[in-house]
């Protein structure tokens, strides 16, 4: 069992480490526990034998649900449980799982009292110097797993793309934009989003535009306002109706993905798609910013006086799109 219990970003960033486990133990039965709303994404990793869902949103699992989770873990009689998350709740579940070997990663703050006694083996690795998916592989390397490079071994089937009304022949003919995040201060101002879309249409007349948002009331209302301000209707708009693996397929086949600090950036990383993103400054942002020639990230400014992300020029974003496209051609 690899126990993570994280949301979309955490789940995607754990996949390379999960692949290391699969490669090291090809005959083992491999289970993966994630937040229940993310389980559908694991359709793209058929080499995982079983996916477990754990409730964290909109409310945390109750005491009864946690006890049921412990009972289920113990019934499986896992030989090994790997937990690179380190959160208090996942650590307690690890301890009570009954697994004979329990590998954990020391949290940045050292964890709660008796944390070290919850695991039979512990690894330490900084959480501030590398992307999260690389960090998790490094943790396994310190535990003895062979590691050369972090790789995402995922597949999206044609049916997932077809569900969005897109065909493989459309690959590369459109840009995908996820304009919203979980908070206003991580988003571009609405008027700048309109300007960005206009500039993309002007600079790349041969590219169509696909917009998507999460299935929440907040993002649904934001999407309605954004569409009302556009002079030209996008090729396709998905306001929360796609499953995660369908959304991954749409992103996988786009020419460039554009977004803020949100889950779709991880889907672009997972599927190897060029991406341009914008972040507000924060100490842990290096964990979530992808590295490589096909990625560009612009860090803006954020303060209590500013509702939205500031300090990012629209021309800088468009130039970043040009840059990643030129990198592909080069």
**Please, what is the oligomeric state?**
single chain
Q: How many distinct domains?
A: 2
Q: On the 0-100 scale, what is the average pLDDT? A: 94
Largest sheet entry: 6 strands, parallel
The rounded Rg comes to: 21 Å
Main sheet: strand order = 9-8-7-10-11-12
The name of the CATH architecture of the largest domain is 3-Layer(aba) Sandwich
Uncertain regions: pLDDT < 50 for 5+ in a row? none
CATH evolutionary superfamily of the largest domain: Glycogen Phosphorylase B
Overall geometry comes to: globular
> Can you tell me the CATH topology of the largest domain?
Rossmann fold
Order of helices and strands: EHEEHEHEEHHEHEHEHEHEEH
Classify the secondary structure makeup into a structural class: alpha/beta
Number of helices: 10
> Strand portion, in percent?
15-25%
Give the CATH class of the largest domain. Alpha Beta
Number of strands: 12
Amino-to-carboxy terminus distance: 42 Å
Helix content: 25-40%
Describe this structure in words.
With 330 residues, the chain is an alpha/beta fold. It folds into 2 domains: 2-142, Rossmann fold; 158-329, Glycogen Phosphorylase B (Rossmann fold, 3-Layer(aba) Sandwich). 35% of the residues lie in helices and 16% in strands. The chain has 10 helices and 12 strands. The chain has helices at 8-24, 63-76, 88-96, 132-142, 158-162, 190-203, 217-229, 244-252, 263-271, 314-329; strands spanning 2-3, 31-35, 50-54, 80-83, 101-105, 121-123, 174-178, 208-213, 236-239, 256-259, 275-279, 295-299. The strands form 3 sheets. A 6-stranded parallel beta sheet has the order 9-8-7-10-11-12, with helices on both faces. β7, α6 (190-203) and β8 form a beta-alpha-beta unit. α1 (8-24) packs parallel to α4 (132-142) and α8 (244-252) crosses α9 (263-271). The longest helix is centred in the N-terminal third of the chain and has 17 residues, at 8-24. The N and C termini lie far apart (42 Å).
């Amino acid at each position: 069992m690899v126990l993570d219990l994280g949301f979309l970003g955490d789940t995607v960033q754990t996949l390379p480490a999960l692949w290391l486990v699969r490669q090291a133990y090809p005959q083992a039965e491999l289970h993966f526990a994630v937040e229940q709303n993310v389980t559908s994404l694991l359709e793209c990793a058929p080499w995982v034998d079983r996916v477990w869902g754990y409730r964290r949103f909109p409310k945390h699992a109750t005491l009864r649900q946690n006890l049921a989770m412990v009972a289920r873990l113990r019934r499986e009689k896992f030989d090994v449980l790997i937990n690179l998350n380190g959160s208090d709740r996942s650590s307690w579940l690890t301890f009570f799982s009954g697994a004979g070997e329990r590998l954990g990663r020391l949290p940045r703050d050292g964890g709660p009292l008796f944390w070290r006694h919850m695991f039979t083996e512990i690894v330490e690795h900084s959480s501030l110097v590398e992307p999260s998916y690389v960090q998790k592989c490094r943790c396994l390397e310190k535990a003895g797993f062979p590691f050369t490079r972090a790789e995402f071994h995922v597949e999206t089937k044609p049916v997932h793309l077809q569900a969005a009304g897109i065909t493989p022949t459309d690959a590369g003919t459109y840009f995908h934009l996820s304009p919203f995040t979980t908070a206003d201060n991580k988003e571009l101002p609405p008027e700048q989003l309109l300007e960005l879309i206009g500039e993309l249409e002007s600079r790349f007349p041969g590219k169509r535009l696909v917009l998507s948002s999460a299935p929440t009331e907040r993002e649904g209302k934001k999407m309605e306002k954004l569409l009302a301000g556009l002079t030209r209707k996008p090729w396709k708009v998905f306001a929360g109706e796609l499953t995660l693996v369908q959304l991954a397929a749409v992103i996988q086949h786009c020419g460039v993905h554009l977004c803020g600090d949100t889950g779709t950036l991880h889907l672009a990383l997972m599927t190897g798609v060029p991406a341009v993103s914008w972040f507000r400054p924060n100490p842990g942002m290096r964990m979530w910013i992808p590295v490589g020639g096909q990625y560009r990230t612009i860090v803006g400014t954020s303060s209590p006086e500013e509702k939205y992300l500031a300090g990012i020029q629209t021309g800088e974003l468009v130039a970043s799109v040009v840059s990643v496209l030129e990198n592909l051609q080069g």
